Amino acid sequence: MWINYLKVGFRNLLKHKSYTLINLIGLTVGVAVTILLFFYVQFHLSFDSFHPESESLYRILRVQNGDQGEVRFPSLPLALQPVIEKNMADQVDYTNFVPNNFLVKRANGDGFNQSVTMVSTDFFEMFGYKMLRGVYPKTADERGGIVLSELAASRFFGDEDPIGKELQVRITDELLNFSVVGIIENTPANSSLTYEILMHDSNLEIQFPENMRTHWYMSFGDGYAKFKNGMTPETFEKQTKDFIARTFQDQQEAANYGFGTQSMTDIHLNPEIPTGIAAVVNPRILWILAGIAGLIILIACINFTTMAIGNSASRAKEVGVRKSMGAGAGQLFGQFMAESVILTVLSLGLGLLLAGLLLPVFNSLMQTQLSFNFSTEQVLILLVIGFAIAFLAGAYPSLFLASFRPVQVLKSGLSVKFGKQNLRMSMLAFQFFISMMLITCTLVMVRQMKTVENYDLGAAKEDIIQVMVPPPAAQGLLDQIDKSFSYAQPFKNELRKFPEVSNVAMATAMYGDNSWFSVGFREPGKDSGIDFHLNIVDEDYVDFFELEVLEGRNFSLATPSDQSNAFILNESMKKALAWDEVFGKSLQSERPFGENRAVGVVKDFHYESLFQPVEPAILVMKPENFFQGMRNLTMEDQMIAKVYIKVKAEDKQAFISKIEKVWKDLYGSDPFSYSFVEDQIAAEYVQANSLSSLVTLASIVALIIAGMGLFAMASLAISSRMKEIGIRRVMGATTTEISLLFNKQFIRITLIGVVISIPASYYLMNIWLEDFAVKTNIGVGVFLLALLVGLLFSVAIVSFETIKSAWVNPTKLLRSE
Hints:
Layout lengths: L1 H14 L1 H29 L11 E10 L2 E5 L6 H8 L4 E14 L5 E9 L2 H5 L4 E4 L10 E5 H8 L8 E5 L4 E10 L12 E4 L3 H4 L2 H4 L4 E3 L1 E6 L5 H15 L3 H5 L1 E7 L19 H28 L5 H9 L4 H38 L9 H27 L3 H7 L5 H37 L9 E5 L8 H19 L5 E7 L9 E5 L8 E7 L4 H4 L4 E4 L9 H4 E5 H7 L19 E6 L14 E4 L3 H4 L4 E4 L6 E6 L4 H16 L5 E4 H7 L2 H34 L2 H9 L4 H35 L10 H27 L3 H5 L3
Parallel strand pairs: 4-9, 6-8, 10-21, 16-20, 18-19
Antiparallel strand pairs: 1-2, 1-11, 1-12, 3-4, 3-7, 3-11, 5-8, 6-9, 7-8, 13-22, 13-23, 14-22, 15-16, 15-21, 17-19, 18-20
């Protein structure tokens, strides 16, 4: 029976080519967009789920109570690991995950600034990353062995077998030799953790002195645990809290310090915890994209339904004849559903093909690595989309067509009742509601991203090149910072000789590169502490970035003490300290700072993305005296100097080639790595820009699909009134008057859709804008522009059809009688 239904269905679809083509195009485009969006959402929801027993894996968080309540940090002190190994070894597997950038090279080869991550032996046993060849270091005695990813192995050894070969890594004052003992798979695309070279964390003893490794307020990298034998997050938090209470002398301090847990599968989707090493996506974005996908396919289904009902008059006699020949309503329903299934299968296949063609563009737009691997989840998504189209789009038209009475349709034909006309128009209004809502959201997003792009950060950002200094051989953090500035000074001196260079400065950080120290201290006699960001800079930094000095002065080499104890604070830090006068004042801490004095205040400037408000910050030339009084110190990246160059050359690439030659003359094989500050700033908004672009494309697709529905509806409405058009033409009506006659009805539908979309889009955009500290105003102009777009689109389509019909010779329209 179904084979016969399908045969007849194919004949009917081929008979009504225009109807079939419009439906097929609408459904195919809708399916392609829906597949990409749902696969993208599923990809992000799958993060870290590939690990065995992923429900037992946790990221350990450092918890501190302060002025703003409980704050959780992903970066941990190295002092935690020995505590776990001593007290919980039978219930907790634990690994450090401390990323670094070291100079790595083969003997007599070129060097690279290479990501090298320190991990514990448990890392290889806890997680689902596959060892492809060799072994991994199991004890501190095997610290000289390193594991390379496939990518790193190819970079250093090409097609050679790297096992047993040596790489040189600069961790200390000299290059140390490490032997490659294993090859591990490249980081899976849906992994929160990324790596290229893995090194046993006993090498941290080489990198950091003991006082830093045992300090409870110095945090380096992340820590991950696998709970077993009855250990729970609550028990872990209690046991570590008890240990802190026994270890800390100050019980108030102990009460405000502890450790928490975060499920491994929660890391990628939880923006409430400060971003650490692992990348995070706001789940709100995923739900927005899933909602857009659902709306797009719903528009396509509505298109199908409205066209099927509108086209019912051409099928009325067929239904009458079939029923008079004994066909039941169930058989007719099956016949029309077969046509729906045929269109669904065709659109699903073509949509999947189109989605595959668009995948590279989509990956580039969304900065992702989405692939079609037809996993169980992806196949399930395709099946759900297929069933949704077949039943949402096909069920009602099939029931509607199967319900015709044979006597009525064979005697006098079919005139679709007013109620059905209302239904079709309501569906069309709903399509325009969705389209106009997406267009309004697009306009707001574009305006917001323009606001972000043009916002005055309070500091220079244009025509600035940042050159990375290779991590120097050093013993401890202070030595590393000091040596990196000394190492870069000759390069800075040479840069000043170029006429294309207007200024040069050095600092450990500037914009959004995760390299500001997070520092906290507690003033004597106060229960709460003050947290701020710290940047180590040279004497040219303030002038270079055009920071506005509101009080006091800039750093000066003419005052030698500036290098050791002077600091400059921003307005937010001055407010946090509640200082009326600044110049000459000193920071006071329960753990006494070294000698320090404020020399100036700069106007607040945005050194983080505009998602964040400006937070308290301090600039110093030497950090040693300030580290002495800190209560906590968190660093997410290595603190080494970067050289900032303000360029006035038109041909920047030619200039970069010149300074690269200078670099090679000074530093030989040390890698020359640069970036533009404007690109760094733009990278902070990749996710927001991608969402804006995607919503823009979705609104275009929705408008096109809705336009196809409007085109079909207008064609059906006009074709059913061709004699009326002929009579009006004979009676003297102009083309404009006939066009206005038909446009009135569709303009009313468009206006209804736009008006309903206003509160919905306003609500959604207010939610989206909550993520920004700096935001645009949603003005009336946005809604007026969306209204104008909708009206012009509607008028253009309907006018095209009416003008085409009005130009037909009226004698041809009236001749059939």
